[in-house]
């Protein structure tokens, strides 16, 4: 029985696909989570997307290695943040080599899988399938701007 002439090509394509797949964040990438993140895009399961050019609120993540919280803050023109005492408790867990942020608020619990985490980008997939893409927020201050 003859082997298909496409078999080596298909094997090579399969190998390249496996090597190019991003396995998600590594444990050391968790150092990047803490701080201020600005939502840039939301991708829905049906393929629709919503882009955010300007945001009035920023997500702030605080954690101590296992538990922490997430809260919404509002940046001011002076480079500070307005906040409240409301914070969403968060647990950081690894399962099957994937990173999950588990939240509890009121009577509900949900999780978000971290798909990408580096110094400038955070992408999560909510348990309902919606994908959230963030960029690291850089504070803006009018006090630092010289207008002549």
Give structural notes.
The chain has an eight-stranded antiparallel barrel with strand order 1-3-4-6-7-8-9-10. It has one helix at residues 7-20; strands at residues 35-43, 49-51, 58-63, 67-75, 81-82, 88-95, 98-105, 108-117, 121-126, 131-136. The chain is built from one helix and ten strands, in the order H-E-E-E-E-E-E-E-E-E-E. It starts with 6 loop residues before the first helix and ends in a 12-residue tail after the last strand. The protein is mainly beta and 148 residues long. The protein is globular, with a radius of gyration of 20 Å. The model is unreliable at 8-20 (pLDDT under 50). The relative contact order is 0.19. The protein has one domain (28-144): Lipocalin (Beta Barrel), CATH 2.40.128.280. 9% of the residues lie in helices and 45% in strands. Keywords: Signal. This is Lipocalin-like domain-containing protein. It comes from Robiginitalea aurantiaca. Residues 1-26 form the signal peptide.
List the helices and strands and how they pair.
Blueprint: H1 7-20, E1 35-43, E2 49-51, E3 58-63, E4 67-75, E5 81-82, E6 88-95, E7 98-105, E8 108-117, E9 121-126, E10 131-136
């Amino acid at each position: 029985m003859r082997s298909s002439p496409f078999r080596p090509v298909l094997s090579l394509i399969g190998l390249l696909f496996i090597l190019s797949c991003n396995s998600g964040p590594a444990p050391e990438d968790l150092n990047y989570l803490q701080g201020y993140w600005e939502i840039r895009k939301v991708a829905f399961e049906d393929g629709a997307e919503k882009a955010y050019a300007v945001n009035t609120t920023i997500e702030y993540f605080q954690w101590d290695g296992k538990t922490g919280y997430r809260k919404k803050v509002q940046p001011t023109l002076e480079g500070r943040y307005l906040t409240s005492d409301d914070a969403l408790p968060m647990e950081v867990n690894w399962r099957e080599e994937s990173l999950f942020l588990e939240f509890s608020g009121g009577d509900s619990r949900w999780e978000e899988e971290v798909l990408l985490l580096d110094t400038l980008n955070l992408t999560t997939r909510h348990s309902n399938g919606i994908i959230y893409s963030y960029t690291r927020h850089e504070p803006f201050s009018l006090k630092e701007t010289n207008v002549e």
